[in-house]
Design goal:
The structure is a homodimer. Chain A is of the alpha+beta class. Chain A folds into two domains: about 5-135, Jelly Rolls; about 145-215, Arc Repressor Mutant, subunit A (Orthogonal Bundle). Chain A is built from six helices and eleven strands. In chain A, the strands form three sheets. Chain A has a four-stranded antiparallel β-sheet. The structure holds a DNA duplex (30 and 30 nucleotides).
DNA sequence: GGAAATTTGTTGTAAATGCAACAGAGGTCT
DNA sequence: AGACCTCTGTTGCATTTACAACAAATTTCC
């Protein structure tokens, strides 16, 4: 198997990488766009290429987007996803490659104290810190009570990340509503209001935030 | 310094613990009830005793409770809290003891490959997995669009955790509203409705969930 | 190129929510 | 014991929101 470039393996020499793949039971799997990706139970999934959405549909058919996992995104039953019984599921938004590593094997105390073993655990800490960051951001956005405030909080965040009042949404407006946990039509109504007031200009996924008006 | 029993140090022999405290710059700090706890910048805080709330007040004075950190809870600027500039702050809900460990030191590749070093990193992964779980739960609750659904989702979760339709809220009803990100009076109104319909019985922090009515 | 699916956009209406203001109960502290 | 503070509880009202239903534009896929 050729070497997989992933944050999880960062800092490993070629030699260490070779020994690691023997020692760890890593699997690289491809998922086609639109396919549902099973929630790994005893393993940790790391998105290597492509994009995966973590979603939930509740008993009333209301859909929510929890996370967008890009390259480096980690997921698994031990990592927050409360399993499919609660309505959670994963969907590949594009053709994906996902790396699966046995969780117990990572967490087992290594008798040989291999240097690469602890490197991987450290890298996992970094990936989980990123995930924590993403979840906190989402929480921060949902903490706002009105649709307008949620939109503004999210737009400000995207503008800050791209260091540009012009930016592109990572998903369609329909999905944006699911991410903000608001009704789509209500969101569109509010977006129309904001457009009218000159707060934002928005065309499909392209947004311009007029920050000077937001004070 | 006497040995601190913490998940972070789990699996360490006494000897390893002794060497660890030298190698790592761990600090144990006490925080009085009601005190504000500074957000650690280059370090990771681990709640050893007591309870800490992660909160935010936005520009309109709206308060949100993001997390309740109990024993084992981890926090820090690298772990989601977007720093005080965004209005985040920590408050000790009870007298607390918090363990601070230098983040870089944990993440540095250890030249001696000490066994205890990698044990601590592994333990940190476990603590962060718990945090991810807690954040995901909160997100799941906020994903519901109505106050009633938020309340029910939260109550069901607490009932499931305590394996008992009777359970105790971890905070006051006032704070519950801040956790659910809804207006307090609106929440109380909805609680009154639910009480009237026989869905729940609630007295201060004591709740009984009548699950048979919830289908 | 054309059919099918998805996305964007709009509107009416009933219901839910935020906001403000107030009153009483319960707890805490000295 | 009393002052003070926080928490619980209630209500009116204006606004926001969810829900439903629909039309048009755009993208995807064969």
């Amino acid at each position: 198997m050729e070497k997989v470039e992933s944050t999880l393996f960062e800092g490993l020499t070629d030699d260490e990488y070779a020994r690691m793949t023997e020692c760890f039971k890593t699997t690289l799997r491809a998922h086609r766009k639109g396919e549902e990706v099973a929630i790994p139970q005893g393993r940790v999934g790391v998105v290597h290429r492509g994009r995966i959405s973590v979603m939930k549909t509740d008993e009333d058919g209301v859909r929510t987007i929890f996370e967008q996992l890009a390259s480096g995104g980690v997921f698994g039953a031990m990592l927050g996803i409360a399993a499919a019984d609660a309505g959670f599921f994963l969907v590949a938004e594009e053709d994906c490659e996902v790396l699966y590593v046995d969780y117990d094997h990572i967490m087992k105390r290594c008798p040989k104290a291999c240097a690469y073993h602890s490197t991987i655990v450290r890298n996992l800490v970094r990936l989980m810190a990123d995930k924590t960051q993403a979840l906190s951001e989402h929480l921060e956005i949902l903490s706002h009570r009105t649709t307008r405030d949620k939109l503004m909080a999210y737009f400000r965040m995207l503008a800050a990340k791209s260091r540009n009042p012009y930016f592109t949404l990572p998903f369609s407006q329909t999905n944006l509503a699911d991410y903000l946990c608001v009704d789509r039509s209500a969101m569109l109504r509010e977006l129309a209001n904001m457009r009218r007031e000159g707060l934002v200009e928005i065309d499909r996924r392209n947004v311009k935030l007029n920050l000077h008006k937001t004070l």
